Amino acid sequence: KFSFLKISTRFFSEEQKLQLDELHLRKIDLADEVLVITRDMYIGESTQNEIGYAIRHNKLVRFYIPWRRTE
Length: 71
Description:
alpha+beta; two-stranded parallel sheet; 2 helices; 14% strand
């Protein structure tokens, strides 16, 4: 199963943010594994909570950090 959801929460109320957090947890429940993609090694508080939730529910958590060439 594959599901992708990335939403900027800048324009949402606190209640809407909580609803989105709950939606993400339900999507983790449906997933076989979780893939965390970060380009700058930053993982915010919500994502950290989702990773912990996934681990507690025995989901495989993978991380992808794209390699960038520096010149």
